[in-house]
Protein backbone atom coordinates (compact mmCIF):
# COMPACT_ATOMS: atom_id res chain seq x y z
CA UNK A 1 0.00 0.00 0.00
CA UNK A 2 1.09 3.55 -0.57
CA UNK A 3 -0.20 7.10 -0.22
CA UNK A 4 -1.38 9.19 -3.14
CA UNK A 5 -3.68 12.03 -4.06
CA UNK A 6 -6.68 12.82 -6.19
CA UNK A 7 -6.05 16.09 -7.98
CA UNK A 8 -8.12 18.29 -10.28
CA UNK A 9 -6.14 19.79 -13.19
CA UNK A 10 -2.91 19.98 -11.15
CA UNK A 11 -0.18 22.45 -12.00
CA UNK A 12 3.42 21.31 -12.10
CA UNK A 13 3.92 23.04 -8.74
CA UNK A 14 1.06 21.05 -7.23
CA UNK A 15 2.46 17.78 -8.56
CA UNK A 16 5.84 18.74 -7.15
CA UNK A 17 4.23 19.25 -3.76
CA UNK A 18 2.57 15.81 -3.94
CA UNK A 19 5.94 14.23 -4.67
CA UNK A 20 7.56 16.12 -1.81
CA UNK A 21 4.81 14.93 0.56
CA UNK A 22 5.63 11.33 -0.33
CA UNK A 23 2.78 10.51 -2.72
CA UNK A 24 3.57 7.60 -5.02
CA UNK A 25 0.39 7.71 -7.08
CA UNK A 26 -1.95 10.30 -8.53
CA UNK A 27 -5.57 9.92 -9.59
CA UNK A 28 -6.71 12.72 -11.89
CA UNK A 29 -10.18 13.79 -10.79
CA UNK A 30 -10.76 16.53 -13.38
CA UNK A 31 -14.36 16.34 -14.56
CA UNK A 32 -14.76 16.99 -17.48
CA UNK A 33 -11.27 15.71 -18.37
CA UNK A 34 -9.87 18.96 -19.76
CA UNK A 35 -6.34 17.58 -19.91
CA UNK A 36 -7.19 14.92 -22.51
CA UNK A 37 -10.47 15.93 -24.14
CA UNK A 38 -10.91 17.10 -27.72
CA UNK A 39 -13.37 19.72 -28.99
CA UNK A 40 -15.78 16.98 -30.07
CA UNK A 41 -15.87 15.54 -26.53
CA UNK A 42 -13.69 12.49 -27.20
CA UNK A 43 -10.56 11.57 -25.27
CA UNK A 44 -7.23 11.73 -27.11
CA UNK A 45 -5.04 8.72 -26.28
CA UNK A 46 -1.86 10.67 -27.06
CA UNK A 47 -2.90 13.33 -24.54
CA UNK A 48 -3.61 10.58 -21.99
CA UNK A 49 -0.10 9.24 -22.57
CA UNK A 50 1.37 12.74 -22.25
CA UNK A 51 -0.45 13.25 -18.95
CA UNK A 52 0.86 9.91 -17.70
CA UNK A 53 4.43 10.79 -18.69
CA UNK A 54 4.11 14.22 -17.07
CA UNK A 55 3.19 12.66 -13.72
CA UNK A 56 5.90 10.03 -14.09
CA UNK A 57 8.33 12.90 -14.58
CA UNK A 58 7.75 13.82 -10.92
CA UNK A 59 8.57 10.30 -9.77
CA UNK A 60 4.95 9.23 -9.35
CA UNK A 61 2.56 7.07 -11.34
CA UNK A 62 -0.80 7.89 -12.85
CA UNK A 63 -2.97 5.36 -11.03
CA UNK A 64 -6.22 6.35 -12.70
CA UNK A 65 -8.57 9.02 -13.96
CA UNK A 66 -12.18 10.01 -13.39
CA UNK A 67 -14.66 8.76 -15.96
CA UNK A 68 -17.37 11.43 -15.90
CA UNK A 69 -20.56 9.49 -16.67
CA UNK A 70 -22.60 12.70 -16.63
CA UNK A 71 -26.34 12.11 -16.59
CA UNK A 72 -26.01 8.59 -18.04
CA UNK A 73 -27.75 6.87 -15.13
CA UNK A 74 -30.71 9.23 -15.00
CA UNK A 75 -30.94 9.33 -18.80
CA UNK A 76 -31.10 5.54 -18.92
CA UNK A 77 -34.43 5.91 -17.09
CA UNK A 78 -35.74 9.10 -18.73
CA UNK A 79 -33.97 9.50 -22.10
CA UNK A 80 -32.66 6.12 -23.29
CA UNK A 81 -31.47 7.36 -26.71
CA UNK A 82 -29.32 10.02 -25.04
CA UNK A 83 -28.01 7.42 -22.59
CA UNK A 84 -26.95 5.18 -25.48
CA UNK A 85 -25.07 8.07 -27.09
CA UNK A 86 -23.30 8.85 -23.83
CA UNK A 87 -22.36 5.20 -23.34
CA UNK A 88 -20.79 5.09 -26.81
CA UNK A 89 -18.70 8.16 -25.96
CA UNK A 90 -17.64 6.62 -22.64
CA UNK A 91 -16.53 3.44 -24.38
CA UNK A 92 -14.28 5.61 -26.54
CA UNK A 93 -12.86 7.20 -23.37
CA UNK A 94 -12.10 3.74 -21.96
CA UNK A 95 -10.28 2.69 -25.13
CA UNK A 96 -8.29 5.95 -25.21
CA UNK A 97 -7.31 5.50 -21.55
CA UNK A 98 -5.99 2.02 -22.29
CA UNK A 99 -4.07 3.20 -25.35
CA UNK A 100 -2.54 5.97 -23.24
CA UNK A 101 -1.39 3.52 -20.54
CA UNK A 102 -4.05 4.15 -17.88
CA UNK A 103 -5.45 0.95 -16.39
CA UNK A 104 -8.10 2.25 -13.96
CA UNK A 105 -11.01 4.67 -14.31
CA UNK A 106 -13.20 5.65 -11.39
CA UNK A 107 -16.83 6.71 -11.64
CA UNK A 108 -19.75 7.51 -9.39
CA UNK A 109 -23.34 6.28 -9.46
CA UNK A 110 -24.60 9.51 -7.85
CA UNK A 111 -27.51 11.00 -9.79
CA UNK A 112 -28.41 13.70 -7.26
CA UNK A 113 -24.99 14.66 -5.94
CA UNK A 114 -23.48 13.70 -2.58
CA UNK A 115 -26.21 14.81 -0.21
CA UNK A 116 -25.37 17.04 2.73
CA UNK A 117 -27.62 19.17 4.92
CA UNK A 118 -25.27 21.74 6.41
CA UNK A 119 -21.85 22.70 7.70
CA UNK A 120 -20.87 22.48 11.38
CA UNK A 121 -17.83 23.70 13.27
CA UNK A 122 -15.06 21.23 13.97
CA UNK A 123 -11.86 21.52 15.94
CA UNK A 124 -10.25 24.92 15.84
CA UNK A 125 -13.20 26.33 13.90
CA UNK A 126 -12.74 24.24 10.74
CA UNK A 127 -15.95 23.82 8.73
CA UNK A 128 -17.18 20.25 8.41
CA UNK A 129 -19.78 19.08 5.92
CA UNK A 130 -22.62 17.22 7.64
CA UNK A 131 -25.64 15.06 6.87
CA UNK A 132 -28.58 14.68 9.24
CA UNK A 133 -31.52 12.99 7.56
CA UNK A 134 -33.89 14.67 10.02
CA UNK A 135 -32.70 18.08 8.79
CA UNK A 136 -33.11 17.37 5.07
CA UNK A 137 -34.57 20.25 3.07
CA UNK A 138 -34.24 20.76 -0.70
CA UNK A 139 -32.80 24.25 -0.19
CA UNK A 140 -30.11 22.87 2.16
CA UNK A 141 -29.39 20.10 -0.34
CA UNK A 142 -28.76 22.71 -3.06
CA UNK A 143 -26.30 24.68 -0.90
CA UNK A 144 -24.47 22.04 1.10
CA UNK A 145 -24.25 18.94 -1.13
CA UNK A 146 -21.31 18.03 -3.35
CA UNK A 147 -22.15 18.40 -7.05
CA UNK A 148 -19.50 16.66 -9.11
CA UNK A 149 -16.35 18.62 -8.30
CA UNK A 150 -18.28 21.56 -6.76
CA UNK A 151 -17.70 21.76 -3.00
CA UNK A 152 -20.41 22.47 -0.42
CA UNK A 153 -20.95 26.03 0.70
CA UNK A 154 -18.91 26.80 3.81
CA UNK A 155 -20.33 30.21 4.64
CA UNK A 156 -17.13 32.05 3.69
CA UNK A 157 -18.86 34.20 1.10
CA UNK A 158 -17.38 32.50 -1.95
CA UNK A 159 -19.28 31.18 -4.94
CA UNK A 160 -22.37 29.25 -3.89
CA UNK A 161 -23.01 25.74 -5.25
CA UNK A 162 -26.54 26.96 -6.03
CA UNK A 163 -25.10 29.29 -8.68
CA UNK A 164 -23.20 26.44 -10.34
CA UNK A 165 -26.04 23.97 -10.88
CA UNK A 166 -25.97 22.77 -14.48
CA UNK A 167 -22.29 23.63 -15.00
CA UNK A 168 -20.11 20.89 -16.54
CA UNK A 169 -18.35 20.47 -13.19
CA UNK A 170 -21.60 19.20 -11.63
CA UNK A 171 -21.28 16.12 -13.85
CA UNK A 172 -24.94 15.84 -14.79
CA UNK A 173 -26.09 15.60 -11.18
CA UNK A 174 -29.38 17.30 -10.35
CA UNK A 175 -31.60 18.11 -7.40
CA UNK A 176 -33.85 15.26 -6.36
CA UNK A 177 -36.88 17.41 -7.15
CA UNK A 178 -35.63 17.71 -10.71
CA UNK A 179 -34.73 14.04 -11.03
CA UNK A 180 -38.18 12.86 -10.02
CA UNK A 181 -38.80 9.65 -8.13
CA UNK A 182 -36.10 6.98 -8.45
CA UNK A 183 -37.27 3.68 -6.99
CA UNK A 184 -35.01 0.85 -5.88
CA UNK A 185 -35.87 -0.98 -9.10
CA UNK A 186 -34.98 2.16 -11.09
CA UNK A 187 -31.68 2.47 -9.25
CA UNK A 188 -30.64 -1.07 -10.05
CA UNK A 189 -31.89 -0.83 -13.62
CA UNK A 190 -29.73 2.25 -14.25
CA UNK A 191 -26.62 0.70 -12.68
CA UNK A 192 -27.12 -2.54 -14.61
CA UNK A 193 -27.38 -0.46 -17.80
CA UNK A 194 -24.07 1.29 -17.07
CA UNK A 195 -22.29 -1.97 -16.30
CA UNK A 196 -23.65 -3.75 -19.38
CA UNK A 197 -22.71 -0.84 -21.66
CA UNK A 198 -19.20 -0.17 -20.36
CA UNK A 199 -17.75 -3.28 -18.74
CA UNK A 200 -17.29 -5.42 -21.90
CA UNK A 201 -15.12 -2.71 -23.46
CA UNK A 202 -13.16 -2.30 -20.23
CA UNK A 203 -12.51 -6.04 -20.13
CA UNK A 204 -11.39 -6.08 -23.75
CA UNK A 205 -8.75 -3.40 -23.18
CA UNK A 206 -7.77 -4.26 -19.59
CA UNK A 207 -9.13 -1.21 -17.76
CA UNK A 208 -10.57 -1.57 -14.26
CA UNK A 209 -13.78 0.38 -13.58
CA UNK A 210 -13.88 1.57 -9.95
CA UNK A 211 -17.40 2.41 -8.76
CA UNK A 212 -17.94 4.86 -5.89
CA UNK A 213 -20.98 3.72 -3.83
CA UNK A 214 -23.86 6.03 -3.06
CA UNK A 215 -22.95 8.74 -0.55
CA UNK A 216 -24.67 8.89 1.87
CA UNK A 217 -26.86 5.93 2.73
CA UNK A 218 -30.48 7.08 2.62
CA UNK A 219 -33.18 6.12 5.14
CA UNK A 220 -35.63 3.29 4.44
CA UNK A 221 -38.04 4.42 1.74
CA UNK A 222 -35.50 6.83 0.23
CA UNK A 223 -35.15 10.57 0.56
CA UNK A 224 -37.21 13.07 -1.40
CA UNK A 225 -38.37 10.24 -3.67
CA UNK A 226 -34.87 8.92 -4.43
CA UNK A 227 -33.40 5.59 -3.29
CA UNK A 228 -29.68 4.99 -2.81
CA UNK A 229 -29.32 1.30 -3.65
CA UNK A 230 -25.54 1.26 -3.20
CA UNK A 231 -25.86 2.59 0.35
CA UNK A 232 -25.32 -0.70 2.20
CA UNK A 233 -23.01 -3.69 2.21
CA UNK A 234 -25.85 -5.78 0.80
CA UNK A 235 -26.11 -3.29 -2.05
CA UNK A 236 -22.37 -3.53 -2.65
CA UNK A 237 -22.60 -7.33 -2.73
CA UNK A 238 -25.44 -7.13 -5.24
CA UNK A 239 -23.34 -4.76 -7.36
CA UNK A 240 -20.47 -7.26 -7.47
CA UNK A 241 -22.96 -9.97 -8.45
CA UNK A 242 -23.77 -8.04 -11.64
CA UNK A 243 -20.44 -9.29 -13.04
CA UNK A 244 -19.07 -11.81 -10.53
CA UNK A 245 -16.32 -13.17 -12.78
CA UNK A 246 -14.98 -9.89 -14.14
CA UNK A 247 -11.60 -8.67 -12.86
CA UNK A 248 -12.47 -5.17 -14.11
CA UNK A 249 -15.64 -4.72 -12.00
CA UNK A 250 -14.97 -3.28 -8.55
CA UNK A 251 -14.90 -0.30 -6.23
CA UNK A 252 -13.47 3.09 -5.62
CA UNK A 253 -13.63 1.97 -1.99
CA UNK A 254 -14.65 5.06 -0.02
CA UNK A 255 -14.16 4.34 3.66
CA UNK A 256 -16.12 7.40 4.66
CA UNK A 257 -19.10 6.41 2.56
CA UNK A 258 -19.07 2.87 3.96
CA UNK A 259 -18.81 4.24 7.52
CA UNK A 260 -21.92 6.31 6.81
CA UNK A 261 -23.89 3.10 6.16
CA UNK A 262 -23.84 1.97 9.80
CA UNK A 263 -24.38 2.86 13.45
CA UNK A 264 -21.16 0.90 14.09
CA UNK A 265 -18.86 2.43 11.46
CA UNK A 266 -15.61 0.67 12.36
CA UNK A 267 -17.18 -2.80 12.34
CA UNK A 268 -18.89 -2.12 9.00
CA UNK A 269 -15.76 -0.76 7.32
CA UNK A 270 -13.74 -3.76 8.54
CA UNK A 271 -16.44 -6.15 7.31
CA UNK A 272 -16.39 -4.45 3.91
CA UNK A 273 -12.58 -4.68 3.67
CA UNK A 274 -12.66 -8.36 4.60
CA UNK A 275 -15.51 -9.03 2.17
CA UNK A 276 -14.31 -7.23 -0.94
CA UNK A 277 -10.55 -7.26 -0.38
CA UNK A 278 -10.07 -11.02 -0.89
CA UNK A 279 -12.29 -10.77 -3.97
CA UNK A 280 -9.86 -8.20 -5.43
CA UNK A 281 -12.73 -5.72 -5.81
CA UNK A 282 -10.93 -2.82 -4.10
CA UNK A 283 -9.24 -0.88 -6.90
CA UNK A 284 -8.47 2.30 -4.93
CA UNK A 285 -9.27 3.63 -1.45
CA UNK A 286 -10.62 6.94 -0.20
CA UNK A 287 -8.97 6.81 3.21
CA UNK A 288 -11.18 9.20 5.15
CA UNK A 289 -13.09 9.41 8.42
CA UNK A 290 -16.39 10.67 9.80
CA UNK A 291 -17.77 11.48 13.23
CA UNK A 292 -21.12 9.82 13.87
CA UNK A 293 -22.74 7.23 11.65
CA UNK A 294 -25.87 6.21 9.76
CA UNK A 295 -28.15 9.19 8.93
CA UNK A 296 -26.28 11.54 11.31
CA UNK A 297 -22.61 12.32 10.73
CA UNK A 298 -20.10 15.01 9.92
CA UNK A 299 -16.91 14.75 7.93
CA UNK A 300 -13.72 14.81 9.97
CA UNK A 301 -9.97 14.82 9.81
CA UNK A 302 -8.67 11.24 9.72
CA UNK A 303 -7.31 11.25 13.28
CA UNK A 304 -10.42 12.58 15.03
CA UNK A 305 -13.33 10.54 13.68
CA UNK A 306 -15.32 7.54 14.77
CA UNK A 307 -13.59 4.94 12.56
CA UNK A 308 -10.51 3.16 13.92
CA UNK A 309 -8.17 4.01 11.05
CA UNK A 310 -5.26 1.95 12.37
CA UNK A 311 -7.49 -1.14 12.45
CA UNK A 312 -8.47 -0.44 8.84
CA UNK A 313 -4.82 -0.31 7.74
CA UNK A 314 -4.21 -3.66 9.43
CA UNK A 315 -7.27 -5.12 7.67
CA UNK A 316 -6.08 -3.91 4.25
CA UNK A 317 -2.77 -5.63 4.90
CA UNK A 318 -4.53 -8.82 6.00
CA UNK A 319 -6.51 -9.08 2.75
CA UNK A 320 -3.52 -8.32 0.55
CA UNK A 321 -4.53 -4.88 -0.73
CA UNK A 322 -1.48 -3.26 -2.32
CA UNK A 323 -2.93 -0.14 -3.94
CA UNK A 324 -3.31 3.56 -3.37
CA UNK A 325 -4.75 5.28 -0.27
CA UNK A 326 -6.09 8.77 -1.07
CA UNK A 327 -7.30 11.37 1.42
CA UNK A 328 -10.72 12.74 0.53
CA UNK A 329 -13.37 15.15 1.86
CA UNK A 330 -11.16 16.92 4.38
CA UNK A 331 -12.92 19.83 6.12
CA UNK A 332 -12.87 23.41 4.88
CA UNK A 333 -11.16 26.45 6.40
CA UNK A 334 -10.53 30.06 5.48
CA UNK A 335 -6.98 29.46 6.78
CA UNK A 336 -6.38 26.80 4.14
CA UNK A 337 -8.55 27.80 1.18
CA UNK A 338 -6.98 25.29 -1.21
CA UNK A 339 -7.03 22.60 1.50
CA UNK A 340 -3.41 21.77 0.71
CA UNK A 341 -2.33 21.82 4.37
CA UNK A 342 -5.29 19.69 5.43
CA UNK A 343 -4.55 17.15 2.69
CA UNK A 344 -0.86 17.21 3.66
CA UNK A 345 -1.85 16.41 7.26
CA UNK A 346 -4.03 13.52 6.04
CA UNK A 347 -1.21 12.14 3.88
CA UNK A 348 1.28 12.30 6.75
CA UNK A 349 -1.17 10.64 9.14
CA UNK A 350 -1.80 7.83 6.65
CA UNK A 351 1.92 7.34 5.99
CA UNK A 352 2.53 7.06 9.75
CA UNK A 353 -0.19 4.42 10.08
CA UNK A 354 1.39 2.42 7.26
CA UNK A 355 4.76 2.57 8.98
CA UNK A 356 3.27 1.66 12.37
CA UNK A 357 1.45 -1.33 10.89
TrEMBL record:
EC number: 4.2.1.8
Pathway: Carbohydrate metabolism; pentose and glucuronate interconversion
InterPro entries: Man_deHydtase, Xyl_isomerase-like_sf
Cofactor: Fe(2+); Mn(2+)
Leader sequence segment: none
Keyword Transit peptide: no
Alphabetic keyword roster: Iron, Lyase, Manganese
GO MF terms, alphabetically ordered: ferrous iron binding; manganese ion binding; mannonate dehydratase activity
Reaction equation(s) it catalyzes: D-mannonate = 2-dehydro-3-deoxy-D-gluconate + H2O
Pfam families found in the cross-reference section: UxuA
GO-annotated biological processes: D-glucuronate catabolic process
Family: Belongs to the mannonate dehydratase family.
PANTHER family found in the cross-reference section: MANNONATE DEHYDRATASE (PTHR30387)
Function text: Catalyzes the dehydration of D-mannonate.
The protein's name in its UniProt record: mannonate dehydratase
